[in-house]
Write a structure and sequence with these properties.
There is one protein chain. The protein has 102 residues and is of the alpha+beta class. Helices cover 31% and strands 29% of the residues. It is built from four helices and four strands; from the N terminus they run βαββαααβ.
Length: 102
């Protein structure tokens, strides 16, 4: 299994709930990608304005196929056009993990 974290800080604490709602209403295109296993949005308990998108994949190859797909490009282009430009400018820190034991 391969897991990807995209962690980002919401600069204005009052906008955290808005961002959470965006993810609750996400397009779910990734859910249809080959090798997709699970999506979760995680909120840091000590720093609630830090959110992490966690997506689990069957393999790194499946993830790489997703990030080079037209659907991936389309989703990320939409993010850049978000009306709240402060939120649209957020750049996540991306980390990738191979599950080596369970």
């Amino acid at each position: 299994m391969f897991i990807v974290h995209s962690t980002f800080e919401i600069p204005v604490i009052e906008k955290v709930d808005e961002v959470i709602q965006i993810y609750k209403n996400r397009s779910k295109l990734v859910d249809q990608a080959e090798g997709f296993l699970h999506f979760q949005l995680l909120q840091n308990q000590k720093k609630p304005n830090f959110l992490t998108v966690q997506i689990s994949w069957e393999s790194k190859e499946h993830y790489m196929k997703w990030v080079t797909s037209e659907d991936f490009k389309r989703i990320h282009e939409l993010e850049k056009k978000y009306p709240d430009q402060e939120l649209a400018q957020i750049v996540p820190k991306v980390e990738q993990f191979e599950v080596v034991a369970t």
